[in-house]
Specification:
With about 475 residues, this protein is α/β, with parallel strands linked by helices. Helix content is about 35%, strand content about 20%. It folds into 2 domains: about 130 residues, Leucine Aminopeptidase, subunit E, domain 1 (3-Layer(aba) Sandwich), CATH 3.40.220; about 325 residues, Aminopeptidase, CATH 3.40.630.10. The structure holds ligand BES, manganese (II) ion and zinc ion.
């Protein structure tokens, strides 16, 4: 059933009530409502709901407490999510007031929709559907639905266990999305990766019986500015021969989170017909130990021609990403954005709510921060601190894939990628978590589409005419 209902018929009005309004509302209400308000003890606390019946006992109106009033887009998203989650299934509402700001309403309605996400693929019983809301004309229902579809896709891909989300299945997902929007997709896998000079992607993936692959999707008018997305698609990260501990391996089905978010973004860009020539590259591999696996101390070749000594097989993300980035740059894009669950260090630095990003271009950074604020999807800039580059030196290869100490680990990882991107400057690198350890309104525990909405708004601001 649709969360955003199409008709006003059979919907009941929803009133926003702050603490000051409550008294007024009470004074103006009929005696039945007054009595009902009194005995339910509704206080208009932030995000609380109250369904008020008419005298037949049917739901007549809904009050939504706002305490004060949301102060920023984030408040609106959370308010929407709490409202939807608090109402009984089967309720369908419309907004009683019409004088809302379109941007605030958009965030409120998006939050409402996000509350409906649940990963249910393996559950034998489905949850009851979420309460519905009618979308007023000043907000685009299609745009809301596209965003929900993109966020849900990314979350589903991450949440799906690695047993059912190998390189082949991730490739099939890309083919399905491509078919939906008339995009072209090519998959290079197994031996073909070596034949076509993607030696680093092959090296990381060859330890698994599930063949490594490079997903390459293209869409849009070739005359539009070229936007290239690259997402880390490590479908499961055991660490390889440098095996992770049980606790560190537990959630590594999420190590294709960068691939999942870039696929969600690609889908959203296509659904919204953003005027760009899109390219999406996802190196999809399983990092497994085994007699075929790449080893600590091996020196591998990369597509760019930089040789890399493997200091640690668990620093595999940067190794697969570097071949994809080198390929991305052969077409001189207008903008290159990569997303990867690259380091634990980024999470230690910023925690689960703040995706870290790096760019040399201040203008890009500021535009991204502005967009993130507009849609309540925060991101945080980190430094591409070149003096740390020396930590990646190897005496016997051009580069080491891992620094001798973990200090500044997310920065040295970014600097490693930079070696494959320079001298190109319009590059933004994201080190994301792709996950939530505990739920927030609109975001259950599990896979998360980190920074997806922030990046999409940034792209809209950059590429959409009259944005
Ligand atoms: N996928 C992990 C990073 C990760 C771990 C992200 C936990 C989010 C949560 C990555 O491949 C990895 O193992 N990185 C190592 C790098 C180290 C060996 C230089 C890390 O962060 O410990
Ligand atoms: Mn790893
Ligand atoms: Zn990894």
């Amino acid at each position: 059933m649709d969360i955003y209902c199409k008709a006003l018929a059979d919907t009941i009005p929803l009133f926003f009530v702050n603490k000051d309004d409550l008294q007024l509302f009470r004074d103006e209400a009929d005696s039945f409502t007054q009595a009902f308000l009194k005995h339910t003890g509704f206080e208009a606390s932030f995000g609380t709901t109250l369904v008020i019946p008419n005298t037949d006992g049917n739901a007549a109106k809904v009050l939504l407490g706002t305490k004060g009033w949301p102060e920023d887009p984030r408040g609106w998203v959370i308010l929407g999510a709490k409202a939807a989650a608090g109402l009984p299934s089967g309720t369908a509402v419309h907004l009683a007031d019409s004088d809302f700001d379109a941007a605030e309403l958009q965030q409120f309605l998006l939050g409402w929709g996000l509350a409906g996400y649940k990963f249910s693929r393996y559950l034998s019983k489905e949850d009851k559907p979420l309460a519905q809301i009618f979308v007023p004309e000043k907000v685009s229902r299609a745009a809301l639905e596209h965003q929900l579809t993109a966020v849900s896709l990314a979350r589903d891909l991450v949440n799906t266990p690695a047993q059912d989300m190998g390189p082949g299945e991730l490739s099939a997902e890309a083919q399905r999305i491509a078919a939906d929007y008339g995009a072209e997709v090519s998959i290079t896998k197994g031996q073909a990766l070596l034949d076509q000079n993607f030696p680093a992607i092959h090296a990381v993936g060859r330890g698994s019986s599930r063949e490594p692959a490079l997903i390459d999707l293209r869409w849009g008018n070739p005359d539009h500015p070229k936007l290239t997305l690259v997402g880390k698609g490590v479908v499961f990260d055991t660490g390889g021969l440098d095996l992770k501990s049980a606790a560190n391996m537990r959630w590594m089905k999420k190590d294709m989170g960068g691939g999942a978010v870039t696929m969600g973004l690609a889908q959203l860009i296509m659904a919204e017909k953003l005027p760009v020539r899109l390219r999406l590259l996802v190196p999809a591999v399983e990092n497994s130990p085994g007699d075929c696996a790449y080893r600590p101390g091996d020196i591998i070749q990369t597509r760019k021609g930089i040789s890399v000594e493997i200091g640690n097989t668990d620093a595999e993300g940067r190794v697969v990403m570097c071949d994809a980035l080198a390929e991305a740059l052969t077409e001189d894009p207008d903008l290159l954005i990569d997303m990867a669950t690259l380091t634990g260090a980024a999470r230690v630095a910023l925690g689960q709510d703040l995706p870290a990003f790096w760019t040399q271009e201040d203008e890009l950074a500021h535009a991204l921060e502005k967009a993130a604020g507009e849609v309540a999807d925060p991101v945080w800039r980190m430094p591409l601190w070149h003096p740390y580059r020396k930590m990646l030196k190897s005496p016997i290869a051009d580069l080491n894939n891992c620094a001798p100490s973990g200090l500044g680990g997310s920065i040295t990882a970014a600097l490693y990628l930079h070696e494959f991107v320079k001298p190109f400057r319009n590059w933004i690198h994201f080190d994301i978590f792709g996950w939530r350890n505990d739920a927030m309104p609109g975001s259950p525990k599990g896979g998360e589409a980190s920074a997806l909405r922030a990046v999409f708004r940034f792209l809209e601001n950059r590429y959409r005419e009259n944005a």
